[in-house]
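Entry for the shared binder. Reason: the reviewer on the internal report wants the predicted structure included alongside the sequence.
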Amino acid sequence: MFKFRTKVYYEDTDSGGVVYYANYLKFIERARTNLIQELGFSLKSLSEKYDCHFVVKNIHCSYIQSAKLEDELSIQTKFIDIKKASFELEQNIYKDDKVIFKSKVLMVIINSTGKPIKIPDSLSSVINV
């Protein structure tokens, strides 16, 4: 389980101080980027060394409760499944230890021409399902 913390800024909200719905997807994207870094990689280095790029193929999400301006959020990410060229994540957002957003994300690994490729061994070896 990987945890990423963020705060809700003014730019994340509508005029009423409530987080705009699409920004939850940005929050979980930031958490995925942080997860790759915690595993010892960077998106740039994976691109340069392996021509490896991550794309969202499918996402299923549920909005449970709104986050508001200056809320402290915790995004928890865990690997559910890993295959040769893809992996599935569960990413949930918490506020005050209560889940406010749930998602399952299917990520596919592609090269710069858009063709699915095998996850680099150095990365798949550190992913725990």
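Summary line for the report: The CA atoms of residues 12 and 23 lie 6 Å apart.
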